Here is the input.
Amino acid sequence: MYRDPVESLEPLHHRQAAIRTLRVGMIGIGTVGSGTFRVLARNRADIAARAGRSIELVMVAARNLERAAGIVGDSVALTADAMHVATHPDIDVVVEVAGGTGPARDWVLAAIAHGKHVVTANKALLAVHGAEIFAAAREKGVIVAYEGAVAVSIPIIKALREGLAANRIEWVAGIINGTTNFILSKMRDEGLDFAAALAQAQALGYAEADPSFDIEGIDAAHKLTLLAANAFGMPLRFADAQVEGITALQGVDVACAEQLGYRIKLLGVARRQAAGVELRVQPVLVPAAHLMAQVNGSMNAVMVKSDAAGLTMYYGAGAGSEQTASAVIADLVDVARLDGVHAAQHVPHLGVHAHATNALAVLPRAAVHTSHYLRVPVHALDQIQAIAAGLAERKVPVRQVALAAERPGVGPQVLVLTGPVEQGALDLAVHALQARAEVAGPVTTLRVESLEG
Here is the structure.
């Protein structure tokens, strides 16, 4: 029923070298893979015109060959052996869209060892094994491209590496997980608690049956690691990132943030400091009037602050088959154009001034310096000044103090917005505040991001 993959491929030397088609092998034909096939077929002529040569999907590896045949028909050779695609002599570039960090690592390294370029949308693979993969690519002089691994339809890697190439990047901040942004939007717009919003996200297909990677912030941290590598020319430091998800976020804090003129977003932040780089994912308060606060549903957005261009912002879909395929094919177009360019130009941690930034440490949590939101349960409404005084005693700058609006089943709450303060100092102040007689329960703290200059 299926053509033999080896016999079905025309030898490359039969093609004219000057206009040779870029021959693609793809591992995986799920959501992203099927979208990639459809877009390549539908926009074939436009893609070839932009790439300067034709791009042809010639082989696909899939676990379910019957399902794969239903997607690609008889136009593409099929195999159940992913390693066969990775090592086939007549394939120029391997697209890995199967996911995971185990077998995918082996396939990608095998492709590189056989002199093939690699395009992947697998952020977990690169965050965990990127150093090894990029070192191998550099040694073999091939490209590893991964636009689809970061912000789906948003070409943020290209923006950092090309559009902002003249700039020193100061910070990057983004809503880079569509599932959590959908959940937070529902919590705010419909007053849902976290569990109800998550259930709705799962029912609509925005969240997986096991949503842990999304709601615990791990997916966003994988992506942030790649953004930081491109922004600062630093190694991939996923293991050093501070990661906090939204599972502990309460609806009362979403409402209180609104009362104070803020919205809560799960934000990935990479910021260059004199002593190192902040690398953190956490729910934060963003001013409600800020553009980032207007990013709702499953949409993504990334903001970049650089010395020459200033503030720039990029917005687009945070999930989707053809949306991710758009980024994958953009990488294939780059490979088609740049085949033969030195591989160092495609390895993020070998970016501009890598010799200087590689030494920068990732700042520990205690050293991160931001403003904060505190929600302090109290026994009585007249204890608001005692809370402010308790923070002042610990040298925490207090910018605003208010009483939370009454909510059914919730006792009196004092809301505090601080000025910028190191996390370590704030932690000590909150510990002392917690021991005061006026405080009736656990103190909730969240960081506040202005996302200004």
